[in-house]
Amino acid sequence: MADQPTVTIEQWFVEGWRLYKRNPITFFFASFLGALICFPPATLFFAGPLYAGLHYMALKGMRGEKPRIRDMFRGFRRYWGVLFLWWLSLIAFVVLCTTAIGILVTPLLWAITTLAFPLLIDERKSVGSAFGAALKVVFTWKNGARFWLYGLLVPLVSFLGVLGFFFGLFITLPVAVCVQVIAYRDMFKPEDAFHQEVLEPWQDYPFKLKPQYIGPISRIRELRNQIFEQIHSSDDSIKPLLSDSIEHIDNLFTKAAHLSYRQQQIDDYLITTNMQTLHIEKMEITRKLAESPNTTVYAQYEEALRTLEERIENHERLEDLGKQIDARLITIRVSLESTHAKIIRIRTTDITNTNLESDDVSTALRDLQIEMDALLKSLDEVSEAAR
Q1: Rounded to whole angstroms, how far apart are CA atoms 115 and 61?
Q2: pTM to 2 decimals?
């Protein structure tokens, strides 16, 4: 999984908490109802499906739907699968509490099961497929260590509620589930993560990108977020200067998203036509035109030839435009990478009132503004040609 998304635990907790806050009362009473039903010894047989039901509620909330308390019982539709995962989680807890090696193994096992639950509920995979898919994601050189930390923190958040005479559990447990759903989204449905970030803040985006067009734009989105993070955490003396770039960078990302969608439209059109076939048709019509027996037939073939030549010209123009868009998307990414490096350099420079306007800091800021203006102008030209 070379293109596997990066584990961002801090962001998962932030977004998970935000997701919980959209429907806190519903989550609280659903958890409270689940606790009443799962009075021992029913916990062994009912807690797993009800826990899966919380995942179903969180998935609905993540997609903008309104979760209902009755959604808690949707987990019973996959009873045996979620029961297996629940028992596996209980075994992991026992191992953690009773063995020295538990602290090494259990967090990874928890990470696997917390990803397998939404796979089982959302994609309706078999328990074996869900567990196997989660296993592949967790055990990678890129993310293994961070998944260990994730698998340690998520259950810890859940059990913190026990300290508040168990009533806190009705808050911390659904919060942990919301975090798990966000993690599932980023690991298995990165296109959903993109749409949620792009389409929600700007509702005038009337399109949806296909998965194969998400990768390039996701990198641009990631760079934009990294730059904004650098700007917002800058020293107060230079933050106002760097903040001037925020609007430019947002415009770059907005135009990149529109260009990606235009690229998708062009590719969809080009798939329906084939340049070689068009040229063969042109040769055939040209031959028939030369052999036409009368003026009426000649005029018909002449009109067909003009139409075909327009199609060929349009096909060639769209191919060239597609190449231009590809080049512009690369340019945006490279420009934002350069911007990110410059802002880091500006931030790490020893800023004083005397050198703020005179040294390479001001030069870098001026160059940055010029680059952004030039790139935005070139993007406007491409966008105009793409209409």
Answers
A1: 17
A2: 0.52
